[in-house]
Amino acid sequence: MIKADMKQFVLCWLFNLEEKMFQERTNLLQKKLKEMHFDCFLVTEPTNRFYLSGFSGDDGVLLITAKNQYLITDWRFERQIQQECPNWKLCLTRNYLQEVCQLAQKLNLTALAFEDSLSYANYGFLDENFPGDLAAVTQIIEQLRSVKEPAEIQVLKRSCQIAGKGYLAVLDLMKNNSAALTELALSHYLDGFMLKQGASGKSFTTIVASGEHSTWPHATATNQLIGQNTMVTLDFGYFYHGYTSDVTRTFAIGPQTTEFRELYQLVLKAQQATIQAIVPGVMGSKLDKIGRGIITQAGYGKYFNHGMGHGIGLAIHELPNVGQRFTDQLFPGQIITIEPGVYVPGIGGVRIEDDILVTETGYEVLTDFDRQYHEL
Known about the structure:
By secondary structure, this protein is an alpha+beta fold.
């Protein structure tokens, strides 16, 4: 009986902690509203809707005012909302934007901020029916999301840990499997393994690219056999309790050319130098310049044709941006990827990607598992 009571206490404590976390996020947005001189904010992006409210349903919008918070959805989710976000004022309807306009009329709201991803048709409806001014805003909630809370960091760390188990399982399979596998078969194997480890699903289509296919940075797995004496690039990310890791490793089946081996060491050198430069305040463009400079100096600059990294969290691509064009400064609590790659036709492709937490004094590598060069 004591154990049952303790379990109930822990569950209640976790629920209250979660409720407090969601409320603090909404409070921050309300503060932003005041700074921007709006009296309400319309949230239509599903990930942002969940981030602020905890509502996991797949339909609905949020209307946040200076003092209140409304969740507007339909009757399918009535009982779900009572459990997930009881502190929100619930409006049940099939016409979400009409309800927004009616609330605005009732509450004398005259300045609405909306996310710039809103469709043109929905904007047109608001433009015709909202009793006040409209303004699109960019990445307001995304900026809040980019700095992770301690509870989020713990979940992301676990997500990265099981990613490590997945990679080691792939190496073990390829080392001990006598029959050749296709890229698709290896992709499906990893997907299944990660689900057994507690992942809820993949955050993008798992990339398995072998041989010449590895020179395509975003190749999709095919029915091509992974033969002997070939290289393999494996890029994967899986959700764990809503948060995703994002990892790339490159390995080989059998001996490779000297140039390919040197290519691997070059990419690894560029990646490690970039990671070591991570501190609060550094700009994404500076990080990109460090790793890209090493690759360019070695004569492979034209073969590195994508950015150095990006933020991760509830989505596979979040703020901050890490690339040549971005002056985003890093803050403690952000989690980014660092993923240089070189793709040389006739030689092979190499990409190595890790997930990095920005700390108060520097960084912590969350995917700190096997990145040495393997010829299985």
